């Protein structure tokens, strides 16, 4: 899709409500495991840079991230590990070449949230990340990693996660792109506290998991 980008490049990421469930726990030093489904066949070096970018951003917020490559894992212990999706400790992220028909033309990703603001599944639109890279001087892996972080942020923050500044800003302009390149587009301090608080609160919860079709 060819589209003219003005000086201020708008970058809208959306979250959808999806009736579903959640949640279990994780340790006192919060670690997030992410099952990655690379349906768009993103080159391995680009995906590695994206994972490193996302891990750096989450590290600044007080989290450690472990990535599981689940694209071609169909059986055995690997499949079992990939399928242990249980927010907020284990999330699933799909990088897809398909664009959801219900998303806006400016959307680069979507997080699927239940009515109570919990969620464990998110999609990132690879073609949109490529378009943004083509119209800027920012590394494609860093763009993809920042998009991945934003969508994971929706899952960890819950409803009303957008902010006027930082990685969770709904519309990214030239300033946000510059900060991606400098490694300074981060979660706000209050967002880090909110994510840590939600993960701590989840330790008391144990709700049966209902899988999202397609994962």
Which terms summarize this structure?
Collagenase (Catalytic Domain); 215 residues; alpha/beta
**Order of H and E elements:** EEHEHEEEHHHH
Averaging pLDDT over every residue, what do you get?
Answer: 82
Number of domains: 1
Alpha-carbon distance between the two ends: 27 Å
- Portion in helices: 25-40%
CATH architecture call: 3-Layer(aba) Sandwich
Q: Give the overall silhouette.
A: globular
Radius of gyration, taken over Cα atoms and rounded to an integer in Å: 16 Å
Question: Could you give the count of β-strands?
Answer: 6
Strand content: 15-25%
Number of helices: 6
Oligomeric state as shown? single chain
Q: Please summarize the sheet with the most strands.
A: 6 strands, mixed
CATH domain class name? Alpha Beta
Helix and strand composition category = alpha/beta
Low-confidence stretches: 1-12, 14-27, 206-211
Strands ordered across the widest β-sheet:
1-5-6-4-2-3
What is the CATH fold-level name?
Collagenase (Catalytic Domain)
User: What's the CATH H-level homologous superfamily?
Assistant: Collagenase (Catalytic Domain)
Question: How would you describe this protein?
Answer:
With 215 residues, the protein is of the alpha/beta class. The chain has one domain (12-199): 3-Layer(aba) Sandwich (Collagenase (Catalytic Domain)), CATH 3.40.390. 34% of the residues lie in helices and 18% in strands. Strands 1-5-6-4-2-3 form a six-stranded mixed sheet. Helix 1 (44-60) links the parallel strand 2 and strand 3. Helix 1 (44-60) packs across helix 4 (140-157) and helix 3 (126-134) packs across helix 4 (140-157). It starts with 11 loop residues before the first strand and ends in a 14-residue tail after the last helix. The relative contact order is 0.24.
């Amino acid at each position: 899709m060819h589209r003219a980008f003005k000086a201020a490049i708008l970058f809208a990421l959306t979250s959808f409500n999806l009736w579903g469930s959640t949640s279990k726990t994780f340790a006192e030093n919060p670690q997030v495991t992410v099952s990655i489904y690379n349906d768009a066949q993103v080159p391995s070096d680009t995906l590695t840079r994206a994972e490193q970018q996302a891990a750096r951003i989450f590290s600044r917020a007080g989290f450690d991230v472990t990535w599981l490559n689940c694209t071609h894992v169909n059986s055995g212990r690997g499949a079992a590990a990939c399928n242990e999706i249980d927010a907020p400790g284990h999330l699933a992220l799909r990088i897809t070449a398909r664009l959801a028909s219900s998303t806006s033309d400016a959307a680069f990703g979507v997080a699927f949230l239940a009515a109570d603001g919990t969620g464990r599944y998110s999609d990132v639109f690879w073609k949109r990340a490529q378009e943004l890279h083509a119209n800027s001087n920012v590394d494609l892996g860093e763009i993809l990693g920042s998009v991945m972080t934003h969508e994971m942020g929706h899952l960890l923050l819950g409803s009303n996660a957008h902010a006027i500044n930082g990685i969770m800003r709904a519309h990214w302009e030239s300033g946000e792109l510059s900060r991606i390149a400098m490694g300074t587009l981060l979660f706000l301090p209050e967002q880090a506290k909110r994510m840590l608080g939600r993960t701590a609160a989840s330790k008391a919860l144990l709700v049966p998991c209902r899988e999202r079709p397609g994962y």
